[in-house]
Amino acid sequence: MQIPPLSYFRLHPRVMVYAIIGMNVAGFLAWRSPVFSRYMTRYGLLMKDNIRSQWSLLGSAFSHQDPFHLMFNMLMLYSFGTSFATAVGASNFLAMYLNSAVISSFVSVAIPTIMRTSITVASLGASGALFGVFGAFAYLAPKAPVALFFLPVPGGAWVLFLGSIAINAAGIALKWGRYDFGAHLGGCLAGAAYGWYFSKIRQSRSRPQVFSRY
């Protein structure tokens, strides 16, 4: 039996991306509401030393306080997400996005423990999930032309993806700035894993079927 909303997303996978963008906008507006802001503090902030709720591993990926942070992330999601959702299907895209968000949050929390550092600053935003989207995209279309700040990147998407892994790893090791490099790196790894998974699905579907005669 087809559930109408789910079947609609299956037929129109781009709408799934628009729905995710809408949820991020809703999270941004919730921070400005006296009624909902306390819930966002509990479920929309990823606390490294004290996770207030396990749901924050996912909720923080739909949480933005700065309008420019929201606009930049949603522009990236729209740029890569709409075409990629069409290519892999709405359900596959949603599973990849949500799992990339959770894995990126988990890595973000785990790294301070592994490195034995204390980080009391909370983090939020969709960046980890977006690195997952881009990682899977780059794995499946490594030569796809991409631009960084409107400048074309020689070598295509895979070169930019490898560069982002190197930068985020360096950011973790050298403790650069206020960015959550751990979440970014976790998203990259999740995205590459999903890219490999999607490539196996594509290969199995393109493989000719052999039937035995009885």
From TrEMBL:
Organism of origin: Metschnikowia pulcherrima
Protein topology in the membrane: Multi-pass membrane protein
UniProt family annotation: Belongs to the peptidase S54 family.
GO molecular function terms attached to this record: serine-type endopeptidase activity
Pfam family, one: Rhomboid
GO cellular component, one term: membrane
Name the record gives this protein: Peptidase S54 rhomboid domain-containing protein
Primary localization: membrane
Presence of the UniProt keyword Hydrolase in the record: yes
Transmembrane segments: 15-32, 75-98, 118-140, 147-169, 181-199
Keyword Membrane: yes
One BP term from GO: signal peptide processing
